[in-house]
Amino acid sequence: MAESFALLCLLIVPHIAEAVCDISWETLNERISQETYDFYNPPWTVTGDSIEVGLKVGISQLKSAGVSDLSLTIHVLQTWNDPRVCFNASSLPSGQTTAPLAYRHQGLVWSPDVYPEGAVTSTQHDVILPNVFLRIQPNGTILKSNRLTVQIQCPTSDTKFPKGNQRCIVRFKSYSFTTDEVCLSWLKEGFTKLDDFSSNVVVDEIAIDTCKHTLFLDEQPCIELSLSLERNFDVYLTRIYLPSAIVVFLSWISLWIDVRQVPARTGLSVVCVLSLMTQTVGLMVVSDDDGSILAVDAWMIVCLLYTVWALVTFITAHYLDSTCQRRAQKTAIMNVEEEMNNSKGKSCTIVGYKRLERVVKFVYPVSFVVFNVVYWAYFMSG
């Protein structure tokens, strides 16, 4: 489909490449800098035909910014022909096929308003200088490239996140022109993988195609870049699952501290709860907005409940122990020493909180192991 669309564009565009221009590059550059020509109007005001704009994208960095976002650093190359900027090739230095236009003069040459549709944020790189170049060939063909970092919406429909695949589509559109004015198509090898991608995603497939877009005007030019991604589960295992499991283990360790060691046990239990709460809230910030419960959400919620369970167990045991001690002190004041050693007092001290802790020490790890068996059996299925 992309090839047929590009062929149609080639049939529409006039053969301006065969035009002969007598002015030198120095003269043309001077006229551009002095704004002698009206370069603000599109080329079709002169040619009367639509303009073919070829596009090529180089992906230099790709990383998952969250459950539903994808961050891309791309080099966008646009090429089109404007007969008003053609010049004599003999005026170029020997071996040079294009003439660079100074950055301060690039705004004086008409360029298409192509933008990445669906971008949440878009940043033009300007270190050390703006990462933009514009070069002109003698036949009037203009090459323009800029370096951008865009964050696009890339929602996932897989509730087993972070396991599974994700498909992201980046559409490049013209905002103010229609297909009768601008014909947008992919150049040969429309995308290039410039560098290694981030470790948290693996690219399975990259495809290019055309698309249809209509907003306020007639049909507007649109092409799309489709990325099929597979998440690297090892990254999430080391950054989310293992740390949260270790916190749950530390909460279980707190059960072995004597209930009367209040500062030590309180500090460890509260730190574990706060650690899981911070990690859970941080994960929810980057989760989908549709309210769906993902596999990683279920894991974090269960781990948080286990740490809260350990804290509640300590509070309950400490309350039972304190109640028993107050009762013993009260009977001592009343000089009823035999009541301090009766079966009821013993039941309060030993059977009350110590039996509670013995049960929790056993049920806590066993139930967490059972949960892991069920969770990973479901998670790894399919």
From TrEMBL:
The chain crosses the membrane at residues 240-259, 266-286, 298-320, 362-379. GO terms for cellular component: plasma membrane. Residues 1-19 form the signal peptide. It comes from the Eukaryota. This is Glycine receptor subunit alphaZ1. SUPFAM superfamilies: Neurotransmitter-gated ion-channel transmembrane pore (SSF90112), Nicotinic receptor ligand binding domain-like (SSF63712). Residues 30-232 form the Neurotransmitter-gated ion-channel ligand-binding domain. InterPro entries: GABAA/Glycine_rcpt, Neur_chan_lig-bd, Neur_chan_lig-bd_sf, Neur_channel, Neuro-gated_channel_TM_sf, Neuro_actylchol_rec, Neurotrans-gated_channel_TM. PANTHER family: NEUROTRANSMITTER GATED ION CHANNEL. It is found in: Cell membrane; Membrane. Residues 240-327 form the Neurotransmitter-gated ion-channel transmembrane domain. Keywords: Cell membrane, Ion channel, Ion transport, Membrane, Receptor, Signal, Transmembrane, Transmembrane helix, Transport. GO terms for molecular function: extracellular ligand-gated monoatomic ion channel activity; transmembrane signaling receptor activity. The lineage of its organism: Eukaryota, Metazoa, Spiralia, Lophotrochozoa, Mollusca. It is a multi-pass membrane protein. It holds the Pfam family Neur_chan_LBD.
